[in-house]
Amino acid sequence: MQLISSQMTGYMEQGSWIRKMFEEGIKLKKEFGEDAVCDFSLGNPDLPPPAIIKETLAELADQADQPFFLGYMPNFGYPAVRERLAEEVSKEQGVDVPADCLVITCGAAGALNSFFRAVLGPGDEVLSPAPFFVEYGFYAENHGAKLVTVPSKPLTFELDLDAIDAAITDNTRVVLINSPNNPTGAVYTRKELEGLAAILTKHNEGRDKPIYILSDEPYRFLAFDGVEVPSLLDIYTYSVVCSSFSKNLSMAGGRVGYALINPAIEGKETLMGAVIMSNRILGFVNAPALAQKLLAKALGSSVDISIYDDRRKAMASVLDNAGFEYTMPKGAFYFFPKAPGGDDVKFCATLQKEKILAVPGSGFGCPGYFRLAFCVGENVIMRAKDGFVRAMKNAS
Ligand SMILES: Cc1ncc(COP(=O)(O)O)c(C=O)c1O
After folding, report:
1. Can you tell me which atom of ligand 1 is nearest the CA of 252?
2. Which of 188, 195, 393, 396 allows an S-S link to 179, with CB 3.0 to 4.6 Å?
3. Domain boundaries in the chain?
């Protein structure tokens, strides 16, 4: 008896590098103890949520005996939370975003899927620069579409606009970008985004369906050295933003985020209606009530990003000391150095012998590199110093 679909069988056999490393980590920690392993494999924010979350939870406890405290609500979320979110997002994007351009979703992942469900059909293509967040391929295929990837420029991971231009076909429906980027830490400049917008505007001529830019921005808050994270809303009309509070409020398990439809899109009400409908019929129904109530109070707060910046500098010093080649991340909490010797899978195995866990770039569609997440204390980063030096020596 075949219990599951062939597609799912394939997915499960394929596995994911992040999951593999996660399982290796559990094994190593069991054998050598938690403190002996330096685990840079997971992008799971380890900083505690801001104090306002605990305060609000205590306040909410007093309301928990009210009818509908955790009841159903409109599929777009609590109207008052959406109003508050609109204020905050307008500040962030530098564009006036009315509340009725927002759908509150189950994280950025829920927003991506709800938007895809609204616009994609069988045979459609979602184009994404590589390396890319590993779930994108699954999300496109959830809706009968396929992910087409275009390599970014080596080492700097800037957009290769000529390559993107050449990869667009009649089936391209969405260009999916992520800035600040997981796994590279790149932040696309205004010039790059304007270049991308010009290419898509050219391709849109004569089409009856626009090519959207979907900008995945859960790391927007985490840009270092004052670097600008430009908004796409005033650069390209057919732009949609998805984001979440998984990283800036360390609320990844709270599952709350949003999709933002550019207010400048003519007929945006239809697109909004479709995304709200998708949120419902994909089975999300609405984003979790409790997380939305927390969000209403916590909007505008953030974890202490100076801690991430200190870790970034510590990791850079450890990598420099061992002689790795990399581009300093401008945002997010990842490094994506070159794998010495060129074989990323082999090099991650070498690191593992030093009890250092990293994810091969192959898992992000970019062999020859490896990802280090700095969602760990500075003590763990410093503890890995000698291990990186030995791994580098063994590889060369
Ligand atoms: C680039 C990127 N997009 C989307 C997500 C999903 O975020 P969420 O937990 O808000 O669904 C993540 C999570 O790590 C991510 O790194």
Report:
1. 9
2. 188
3. 6-49+303-395, 53-298
